[in-house]
Design goal:
about 130 residues; mainly alpha; single chain
C-alpha cells in the first residue's frame, strides 16, 4: 500500500496531455490497413503561388460563408471597462492634428529650401562651437 514503484506495463505514466493524444493517434493509425492510407501525389509539394491579397480575400469569403445571420448583423461594441475611452479618443485625435501640422510645416520647409538640422554639416568642425562669433 503506497509503494513508490509505478506500473511497469504502462509506457509512460508521466506523459503530458499532448503526448497522450499523440499516442492515441498512433494507436488508431496502427489499426488501419496500410492499403487504406493514400495520399494524392499531385497535391503534395504544390505551393499556392497566388498573391497574398488574393489568399486573404479567399479566406474572408470562406469566413463570411460560415457566418450566421446573427453574426453578420452584430455590430462592434465599445467596451470601456474602467478605462477612460473618451479621453483616449480625444488624445488620439489631438495627436493626429499635431501630426498634420508637422506635415504642413515639413512641406513648407522643403518648399522654401531650408534643410533644417543637416545644414553645413560637412564644413563645420566639432570645435567650431567654441569659436568667437563676430
Amino acid at each position: 500500500s503506497g509503494e513508490a514503484n509505478f506500473d511497469s506495463f504502462e509506457a509512460n505514466p508521466f506523459q503530458t496531455k499532448k503526448q497522450r493524444r499523440e499516442g492515441e493517434v498512433h494507436q488508431l493509425l496502427d489499426k488501419l490497413q496500410p492499403e487504406m492510407i493514400s495520399l494524392n501525389p499531385h497535391f503534395i509539394g504544390n505551393v499556392d503561388r497566388a498573391p497574398q491579397e488574393v489568399i486573404a480575400e479567399e479566406r474572408k469569403m470562406l469566413r463570411e460563408e460560415h457566418m450566421t445571420d446573427r453574426q453578420r448583423e452584430k455590430k462592434a461594441k465599445r467596451h470601456a471597462r474602467g478605462r477612460d475611452k473618451s479621453g483616449k479618443r480625444y488624445k488620439k485625435k489631438q495627436a493626429n492634428i499635431v501630426e498634420e501640422k508637422k506635415g504642413v510645416h515639413r512641406q513648407h520647409r522643403d518648399d522654401s529650401g531650408e534643410s533644417g538640422k543637416g545644414e553645413d554639416q560637412g564644413n563645420k568642425s566639432v570645435l567650431d562651437r567654441f569659436k568667437f562669433r563676430s
